[in-house]
Amino acid sequence: MIDFIQVNKQFGAQDVLKSVTFRINSGERIGIVGPNGAGKSTIFGLIGHDIEADAGEIVIPKNTRIGYLHQQLNPHAVDQNLLEYTEDSIPDLKTIPARIHELEHAMEAMESAEKERALRQIGNLQHEYEHLGGYEMRTRAEAALCGLGFKVEEFNQPFASFSGGWQMRAELARTLI
Length: 177
Hints:
- The radius of gyration is 20 Å and the shape is globular.
- Helix 3 (92-107) runs antiparallel to helix 4 (112-131).
- By secondary structure, the protein is of the alpha+beta class.
- Strand 1 (2-11) and strand 2 (14-24) form a beta hairpin.
- The two termini are 19 Å apart.
- The protein folds into three domains: 2-59, no CATH class; 73-90 and 133-177, no CATH class; 98-127, no CATH class.
- The chain has helices at 40-47, 82-87, 92-107, 112-131, 137-147, 164-176, and strands spanning 2-11, 14-24, 55-59.
- Strands 2-1-3 form a three-stranded antiparallel beta sheet, with helices on one face.
């Protein structure tokens, strides 16, 4: 659940949001429509912590996963192929297997009490990986890309080689998974 309570945001002398209050319930998927300058991007920027409110309260539970389609494309995706870029929508998924591997390697030199702690850490990391959808990520990424019109043969092409419109579709796939 996300609550906006009397949120205000100004850019210069321009009031973009004034006393905005609403709730997004858990599991809901929303879209916001309105004319240019109405504050749509500002609301998503506030939810995503890209910008701060001038006043009011925004309540977002700690483990809430938020995805939204940015208007600007990611300039850091130049070294990834389409599928890799899409799979990277949850940054922790890439680091967890490396952390597990480091712990497994370090266990070779550990005493038994240390090994037990390391095994518990590994178990916690595996649980987190599963909770974040790590084991299904590739399948979900492929399904989202195909559903948005990409062909399987395109998955290994560099992300940067696609037109802006197709890159925006890949951004949408990242948001959907």
